[in-house]
Amino acid sequence: MQMIEIERKFLVISDAYKKEAITTTKIAQGYLSKHPERNVRIRIRGEKAYITVKGASNTTGTSRFEWEKEIDIEEGKSLLSLCERPIIDKYRYEIKSGNHLFEVDEFLDENQGLVIAEVELTHEDETFIKPDWLGEEVTGDTRYYNSQLTNVPFSKWV
């Protein structure tokens, strides 16, 4: 079944989101493939593992095909060991804002200092309440794609 993911991304300008978080989870993720038209990701999120296939973004960078399936945790760990390096490590905070759920990723290691918020929408022009800690929108800026952060980590940006 085809699923279109519609999301917008923002930089985060304060750590106030941490006080509003309803969950916090450690995530490790890597890429088996980072082709420009599609990527295949393995993610370990807490005690669960997932395989995800994402297609290329549309022209605005807001929508793209996404297919995800939960897999056995041991299979996930084995597949993660096959992924290209480096592996992305981060903490994910989930925050409710109105009718929406924001996912805030606080990156570790070579991407330390980068904090990005994402909100999934049902259509591209859907309105949502913007929390005070939300900064500049970076939707469509490929530098902020997790797959690209493995190529050029945040610590290497000039």
Automatic annotation (TrEMBL):
Which protein, by its recorded name, is this?
Adenylate cyclase
Family annotation (InterPro entries): CYTH-like_dom_sf (IPR033469), CYTH_domain (IPR023577), NeuTTM/CthTTM-like (IPR012042)
The superkingdom listed in its UniProt entry is Bacteria
**Which organism is this protein's natural source?**
Galbibacter marinus
Every copy of the CYTH domain together lies at: 3-151
Q: Which residues form the active site?
A: 31 (proton acceptor)
Q: Which Pfam families match?
A: CYTH
